[in-house]
Amino acid sequence: MGDVAVIGVGMSRFTTYQGTKDIEDLGYEATTKALEDADIAWKQVQAAFCGSALSGNVVGHRVLNLVGMTGIPIVNVENACSSSGSAFRLAYQSIASGRYDVCLALGVDVVPRGLILDASWPIYQRVMGFNVEPASYAMNARRHMADYGTTIEQIAKVTVKNRKNGSLNKYCHFQKEVAVEEVLASRLISDPLRLLMCCPNAEGGSAAILVNSRKFKRTKAVIVAASVLTSSMFGSPGTDVGMGTIMTPINPDRTEAAAKEAYELAGLGPEDLDLVETHDAFASAEISHYERLGLCGKGEGGRLIDEGVTAINGKIPVNPSGGLMSRGHPVGATALAQAAEIVWQLRGEAGPRQIPHARVGLAHTLGGGPNCSIIILKGQR
Amino acid sequence: MGDVAVIGVGMSRFTTYQGTKDIEDLGYEATTKALEDADIAWKQVQAAFCGSALSGNVVGHRVLNLVGMTGIPIVNVENACSSSGSAFRLAYQSIASGRYDVCLALGVDVVPRGLILDASWPIYQRVMGFNVEPASYAMNARRHMADYGTTIEQIAKVTVKNRKNGSLNKYCHFQKEVAVEEVLASRLISDPLRLLMCCPNAEGGSAAILVNSRKFKRTKAVIVAASVLTSSMFGSPGTDVGMGTIMTPINPDRTEAAAKEAYELAGLGPEDLDLVETHDAFASAEISHYERLGLCGKGEGGRLIDEGVTAINGKIPVNPSGGLMSRGHPVGATALAQAAEIVWQLRGEAGPRQIPHARVGLAHTLGGGPNCSIIILKGQR
């Protein structure tokens, strides 16, 4: 397997465009910014992988038609929230195997009407009679509270931390801090989760240029140490989250399995990470992600929040970008937005939210199914 | 690049199930048949690629949850009509690169309500004010008739040939022959195309098991000599089909480019082919596909039909399965159904439609965008 590097990233702001921008606009913006950042011409790109979950057919073709059709293979990937993580992985593997030297990974989504209905497919409705999200996350939160004494205040503090980080990020939908009291006083959505513990919908595009690093030397290059995908679904064995077992999106087995595979592939462990972008679709989930990614032991996630370990100035900052909680969650575009944040941090270009001496970062995305995508990147500083 | 073989294929009948079977049922049937045909256990499969274009989110996960979730990566691919051809190619490349030894390629689709509306995305409506299919195919047909003297009778004979072949195939939606007069008397859909020149909608699943052939020896194995994908879209340069240039689905550049790449990869030419499965979404398209795939010179496609060259007992049988015209076209499942027919023919298992001494076959699928997927398979007989 060859050496693979990210030499350019780009994204649109993630927000609700209310029809003023479509996937073509958002994907074009992300792609052209990534090409410019990489200092590479579009005609040098040999294959493109586009992750999108909500925006219809041949999304990559619709976007790249605007950039210019060069005849390269374009593969559209739909792995729910992990769509662009899966696109990144296909680009990574295509280069690592020697098949290509330059690939585009793209993620883009807008919010269609009827989104919430789409998220609950028949098997859920038949079995449980309710919508999968946020109910499954709520049940997982309750289970974590019951098992480990995690408190609702700790869950609220995740939102507060991420919104604070997001206030420093021009790409975020929300760029305004919130207080714990405000989070706890927001409308109840699915007990115990309140509105400000749920990430907002958003629309946006994100992109990365991956290359064979032996052939393309760039001082800004960031090495891909690992890119993995695991998939599972209902009732996978060995889970310990009660009802959540059959609920899927937060099924923690997949995160543990993916993290194990990614750490092995990278030859690194959680102790080597300088920052993490994790899938805080709901604030409660971030706490259990800490544990499943090995940042702490089982049941210690709440303590990490209380002690500020994962704050931007903590020992292991999590979601310095503001996370899904601030950025919003254009489903297919999220994983590459996480990767973009890590690239900027590893290059020392994160501005007011820069983590000093950041050298290794991990991006973690769950996707309905669930899929779990993990990307580990290493800087050259 | 290693050696890759198909050691098992399976499919459901393609037909309109009227809600009695869903994608889970159809994908399960295809997958379990392919596993059985391959004489391999599901737990031996290391990665799965699922092509689907019309059936919603995480289709592969929904199907494979029934087969059993083993934690392997599942990637859902959406490349319109080339979806399962693209899934096949990803499986092929994953094995050729040494990343995996056993992969599943799956295709499945049902017909959702509103399909025809979905097929015309805004850019068409804005520019041309009409639905892309069958109008673009109709314009390409008119262009071919004007340029080369191709007749409406020749186009009708494509339907007659394919329906005759389909009458011998239990997997087809239509299993009944039609006469030229019947085709010509059928309802006009988009001048010059009549109803029986248009392939029917259908629902179904198709699957193949691909392996590293050095590690898995099977007497029934069929070698993957090439699996390529090209993508383009509106107004790609160098086309010569007039208005059809901006119409895309039949944009012939992509077929020519993909065929060139596939022949080079396989070290074979059109003269080496013993059978072809081509994308006869409309009967007129099959005639120009002959030319673009190199089975004859430009403008000679009509002659091939008149002389019976592409009949099942002709020099180079095309669509011995009955093609899309008989089988119907469950968008994401079509390419792997073509591949399955070629596998059966190369193994001498095609029953009443067996082509004697078939050793090399090519499957060609166009997908809106257009994508063009080409797979070349070689038998061991």
What topology emerges from the helices and strands here?
2 copies of one chain form a homodimer.
Chain A: E1 4-11, H1 23-38, E2 47-51, H2 59-67, E3 74-77, H3 83-96, E4 102-109, H4 115-118, H5 122-128, H6 132-148, H7 152-166, H8 180-185, E5 188-190, E6 193-194, E7 204-212, E8 222-231, H9 252-266, E9 275-277, H10 283-292, H11 301-306, H12 323-327, H13 334-346, E10 360-367, E11 371-378
Parallel strand pairs in A: 2-3, 2-4, 9-10
Antiparallel strand pairs in A: 1-7, 1-8, 4-7, 5-6, 8-11, 10-11
**How would you sum up the major sheet of chain A?**
9 strands, mixed
- Which class do the helix and strand fractions of chain A yield? alpha/beta
How many extended strands of chain A? 11
What percentage of the residues of chain A does DSSP assign to strands (E)? 15-25%
**Unreliable stretches covering 5 or more consecutive residues of chain A:** 116-126, 235-252
Distance between the termini of chain A: 23 Å
What is the rounded Rg of chain A?
A: 19 Å
What would the average pLDDT of chain A be, to the nearest integer? 89
Question: What would you note in describing this structure?
Answer:
Two copies of one chain form a homodimer. With 381 residues, chain A is an alpha/beta fold. Helix content of chain A is 36%, strand content 18%. Chain A has helices at residues 23-38, 59-67, 83-96, 115-118, 122-128, 132-148, 152-166, 180-185, 252-266, 283-292, 301-306, 323-327, 334-346, and strands at residues 4-11, 47-51, 74-77, 102-109, 188-190, 193-194, 204-212, 222-231, 275-277, 360-367, 371-378. In chain A, the strands form two sheets. In chain A, strands 3-2-4-7-1-8-11-10-9 form a nine-stranded mixed sheet, with helices on both faces. In chain A, strand 5 (188-190) and strand 6 (193-194) form a beta hairpin. In chain A, helix 1 crosses helix 2 (59-67) and helix 7 (152-166) packs across helix 10. Chain A is globular. The two termini of chain A are 23 Å apart. Chains A and B meet through helix 2, strand 3, helix 3, strand 8 and helix 9 of A and helix 2, strand 3, helix 3, strand 8 and helix 9 of B.
